[in-house]
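Tutorial handout. Part one gives the primary structure; part two gives the three-dimensional structure as tokens.
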Amino acid sequence: ALKKFIQIVLLDGLLVDQGEITYPAVFSLFWFIQLFLNCIIGMSLAIARSFVVVTVSAVSCCFVDFTVMPECLVSLDTGYYSLLTTAYTHHSSSNPVKLAGITVLW
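Part two.
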């Protein structure tokens, strides 16, 4: 919430006018604070994700009837949606049916 407040209200609303920075010294201070908050949030998400994955993996290695990340716990894995986005983007650009269609049309 603090990060979004800094980004939307302070940086975009008060310190930037039509894409131009109006107060560079104050802007750089809040930009650094936002960068620092991004690092803290990223580290905490990485630690939380590692904890969730290790815990679920330790439990699931005893069972054969579900995968490493069960579907009910996938929302806790912060890297899952990034993987889906990467897979979708790669598939849309290298889809064999799409490439064959484009080749035939040209």
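Part three, for discussion. Residues 24-60 form the longest helix (37 residues). The two ends are 50 Å apart (CA to CA).
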